């Protein structure tokens, strides 16, 4: 028996099972040229039906498989469901050589294979500064002190009794795409943009808690958020954000937070870089000055060409990226592709996404999928018929404030090339005539 | 640090005693509020009325606030009194810090260097000149440090790496003094204290090197870089300005194994050179499919009745986690490679050295638990009090087997 497999996702190739490779290639060429002419005439849709008489039967149809003729698995065979075994390649991964200690490292989400805007909890990117923990929720406490009428302590039981909100927001590390400031450094969208995730979070608004403790929100223009883990990560949060949409959250995507993402409690700071979303949140302090924490003085500061560091850069600006097709992937054939990607802005909603297939010379506006939410990922799709010649794909987002995602050279003209943080430049993917896609910089 | 917490705490203790009546009052008002709403009356009273959840939680005690409120701000608010000398700092450093940061804070093995790149001239100007150089290889901690409070606060809250918050206040002062001395910011006989730390701040090489940047802090502010929304015949050169060199093709592993095996695209097989033409597509499909290890790529029937995942802990039998996994989780790999020397010897080197030595397992287990120094050089192995004994036994056994 031959080991040939049908090619999933493609139009079935009729001669494959019994013709020589030469004849197959001839047939393929013939079909392509026909499709080319047909498309030129605007009649591409009929192409697939033409060769049906010459087609071999698909064994996947005519030979009934075991899953059609046998008994499958029972309910609850897995108490907590897992993805199909065929999806094993989509994993969060470390970027080799990026960090030296895995407990102070990052894993990237596999954006190249994800759909919609919600990140499955098991694929959410990770960033740990001193390793992760699985904390007993009955032993976790949140303290609020500083410029408050009454310093207070809350158990998880108590927090979860408070008025709840559920909101969808993106989280992006300030260093996402940071390796690309100077040159192309990594091959795929997982490593260029994978410190990005988006979840529906459930928790209590921070403003509710600040009201309960009688916070002095006039004098107290800042908040310190502090984690309960070894590094006791601290970050300064602007009071303006705290009173607006910051959440103290215990749930993501319908279940409790994952330990890697701060179980049982984390801060959610919409639109602001991930380092401020303090995990294992144990304390909030209201203060009249920023705190100059380690990650505000030594890291997460943006080195400018004149040698100064911009400090307290926190906002994640308007940005987008095409996720399929993207670097490291191979297009299997010419013809139609649904080009898809993600757009987001820390300043609000995405208003428009344009896509270019010629390296930024001409642009077409993409379809935005619902929902389009503030400070959330937005999924875009656009039609593309690949003619087999080299192409450079780019996407460009515009947010509701009118901020247009800049080109890399526009960013570099102001911020130089030695920053690590807040690279929101336009990403380019080169599709070679072989179908292989490469990460490139074009502007 | 909350200076007013004491006053608040005594007031809130009183409130706590009266907690039950207060709660009852809140409920009454909450009900009243609900009623007014139901009657459709004006909502003018709602804003000032206590929320029905207002009494959830309890006041923090002064000791609780003291235990957690450890942050030290740039104006030294929160800095506890104390002192430490450069000499004392050196002792603490060599015992607890050098294993990761190197004897002189220069090590680039585990973390980026702490010391280096600053000059006497920088101390005068408060700006580190090397930060303007494109060719300067590293940005050390002292090159970037603009607030001495930050160094104090972070060492106090997060160091040493595997035993954070275990240093005494005076030890923290001494380690900060030692680092500043390595950077030639304070002399060798210096004693740092809460009394003179503000003077030291005035000597930091990069104290004037920071700029608060409003546009990336406030949501409503204006961006500093704006793109353009041109749609047709826009200015672009279409030149490829940068692309990965072909020798780096598999630097991130086989990309075929990092992509889905169904759909319009596959991952490139980076174990091989790039495909030469589009007609190799079927080879690409087959190569990608072969990367789903154990998913029955060559036996479709398995796809129907999947074996329950063998990588779930329960499926691994009594052994639990693999020793290699325990070594990762125990942070052993921060300093040891399997077959490459990092800060400490590689596991294979250890296996070789102790091959056939009676009692080696017990000896090494003791070293893992309590730390040690001198066998592989002067950089000490820190104690690992938090790894369970059984896990240590299994990790050591695995190492002595050559870390297969």
General description of the model:
The complex is a heterodimer of chains A (443) and B (404). Chain A has 443 residues and is α+β, with helices and mostly antiparallel strands. Chain A has helices at 21-40, 59-62, 66-69, 156-159, 189-193, 206-212, 239-244, 294-297, 408-415; strands spanning 106-107, 126-127, 141-146, 152-155, 165-172, 196-205, 222-227, 234-238, 247-252, 255-256, 266-268, 281-287, 302-303, 309-311, 319-324, 329-331, 335-344, 350-356, 364-365, 367-368, 378-386, 391-399, 428-431, 437-441. In chain A, the strands form six sheets. Chain A has a five-stranded mixed sheet with strand order 4-3-12-7-8. By secondary structure, chain B is mostly helical. Chain B has helices at residues 5-17, 19-39, 62-68, 86-101, 120-125, 141-144, 148-158, 169-182, 197-201, 281-289, 323-329, 347-354, 360-370, 389-400; strands at 58-59, 83-85, 191-193, 210-212, 242-243, 265-267. Chain B has a two-stranded antiparallel sheet with strand order 2-3. In chain B, helix 11 crosses helix 14 (389-400). The longest helix of chain B is centred in the first third of the chain and has 21 residues, at 19-39. The relative contact order of chain B is 0.08. Mean pLDDT of chain B is 82; it is low at 1-46 and 296-318. At the A-B interface, strand 3, strand 4, helix 6, helix 7 and strand 12 of A face helix 1, strand 1, helix 3, helix 7 and strand 4 of B. Strand 4 (152-155) of chain A pairs antiparallel with strand 1 of chain B, so a sheet runs across the interface.
């Amino acid at each position: 028996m031959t080991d040939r497999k049908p090619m999933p996702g493609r139009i079935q190739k009729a001669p494959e099972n019994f013709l020589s490779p030469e004849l197959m290639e001839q047939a393929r060429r013939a079909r392509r040229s026909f499709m080319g002419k047909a498309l030129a005439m605007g009649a591409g849709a009929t192409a697939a039906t033409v060769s049906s008489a010459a087609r071999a039967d698909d064994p996947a149809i005519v030979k009934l498989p075991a899953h059609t003729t046998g008994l499958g698995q029972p309910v609850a065979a897995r108490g907590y469901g897992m993805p199909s075994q065929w999806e094993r390649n989509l994993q969060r991964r470390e970027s080799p050589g990026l960090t030296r200690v895995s407990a102070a490292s990052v894993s990237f989400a596999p954006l190249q294979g994800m759909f919609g805007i919600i990140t499955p909890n098991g694929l959410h990117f990770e960033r740990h500064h001193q390793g992760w923990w699985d904390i007993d929720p009955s032993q976790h406490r949140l303290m609020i002190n500083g410029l408050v009428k009454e310093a207070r302590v809350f158990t998880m039981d108590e927090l979860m009794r408070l008025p709840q909100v559920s909101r969808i927001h993106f989280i992006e590390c300030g260093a996402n795409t940071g390796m690309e400031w100077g040159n192309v450094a990594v091959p795929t969208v997982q490593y260029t943009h994978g410190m990005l995730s988006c979840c529906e979070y459930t928790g209590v608004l921070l403003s509710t808690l600040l009201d309960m403790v009688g916070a002095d929100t006039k004098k107290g223009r800042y908040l310190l958020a502090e984690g309960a883990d070894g590094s006791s990560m601290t970050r300064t949060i602007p009071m303006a954000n705290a009173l607006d949409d910051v959440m103290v959250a215990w749930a993501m995507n319908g279940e409790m937070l994952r330990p890697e993402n701060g179980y049982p409690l984390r801060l959610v700071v919409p639109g602001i870089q991930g380092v401020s979303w303090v995990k294992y949140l144990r304390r909030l302090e209201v203060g009249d000055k920023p705190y100059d924490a380690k990650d505000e003085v030594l890291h997460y500061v943006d080195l400018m060409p004149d040698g100064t560091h911009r400090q307290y850069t926190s906002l994640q600006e308007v940005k987008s990226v095409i996720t399929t097709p993207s670097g490291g992937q191979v297009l299997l054939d010419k013809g139609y592709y649904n080009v898809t990607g993600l757009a987001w802005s820390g300043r609000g909603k995405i208003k428009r996404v344009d896509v270019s297939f010629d390296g930024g010379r001409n642009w077409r506006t993409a379809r935005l999928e619902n929902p389009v939410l503030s400070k959330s990922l937005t999924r875009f799709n656009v039609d593309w018929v690949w003619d087999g010649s080299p192409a450079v794909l780019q996407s460009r987002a515009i947010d509701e404030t009118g901020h247009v995602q800049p080109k890399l050279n526009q960013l570099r003209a102001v911020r130089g090339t030695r920053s690590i943080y807040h690279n929101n430049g336009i990403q380019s993917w080169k599709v070679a005539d072989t179908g292989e896609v490469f990460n490139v910089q074009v502007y | 640090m909350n200076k007013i917490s004491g006053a608040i705490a005594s007031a809130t203790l009183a409130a706590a005693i009266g907690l039950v009546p207060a709660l009852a009052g809140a409920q009454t008002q909450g009900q009243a509020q609900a009623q007014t709403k139901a009657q459709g009356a004006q909502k003018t009273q709602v804003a000032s009325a206590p929320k029905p959840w207002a009494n959830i939680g309890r006041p923090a005690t002064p000791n609780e606030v003291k235990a957690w409120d450890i942050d030290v701000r740039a104006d030294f608010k929160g800095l506890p009194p104390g002192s430490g000398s450069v000499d004392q700092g050196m002792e603490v450093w060599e015992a607890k810090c050098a294993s990761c940061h190197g004897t002189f804070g220069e090590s680039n093995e585990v973390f980026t260097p702490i010391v280096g790149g600053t000059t006497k001239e920088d101390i005068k100007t408060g700006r580190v000149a090397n930060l303007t150089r494109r060719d300067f290889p590293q940005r050390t901690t002292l090159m970037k440090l603009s607030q001495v409070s930050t160094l104090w606060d972070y060492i106090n809250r997060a160091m040493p790496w595997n035993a954070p918050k275990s240093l005494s206040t005076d030890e923290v002062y001494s380690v900060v003094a030692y680092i500043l001395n390595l950077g030639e910011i304070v002399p060798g006989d210096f004693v740092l204290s809460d009394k003179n730390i503000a003077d030291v701040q005035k000597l930091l090489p990069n104290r004037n090197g920071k700029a608060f940047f409003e546009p990336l802090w406030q949501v409503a502010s204006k961006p500093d870089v704006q793109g353009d929304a041109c749609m047709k015949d826009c200015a672009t050169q279409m030149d490829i300005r940068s692309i990965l060199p072909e020798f780096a093709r598999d630097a991130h592993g086989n990309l075929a194994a990092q992509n889905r095996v169904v759909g319009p695209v596959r991952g490139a097989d980076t174990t091989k050179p790039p495909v030469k033409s589009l007609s190799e597509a079927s080879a690409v499909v087959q190569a990608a499919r072969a990367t789903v290890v154990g998913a029955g790529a060559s036996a479709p029937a398995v796809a129907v009745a999947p074996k329950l995942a063998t990588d779930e802990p329960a499926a691994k039998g009594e052994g639990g986690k693999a020793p290699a996994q325990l070594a990762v989780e125990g942070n052993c790999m921060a300093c040891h490679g399997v077959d490459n020397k990092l800060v400490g010897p590689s596991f294979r080197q250890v296996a070789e050295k102790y091959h056939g030595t009676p009692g080696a397992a017990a000896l090494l287990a003791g070293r893992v638990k309590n730390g040690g120094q001198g066998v592989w050089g002067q950089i000490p192995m820190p104690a690992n009090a938090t790894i369970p004994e059984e896990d240590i036994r299994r990790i050591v056994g695995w190492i002595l087997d050559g870390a297969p």
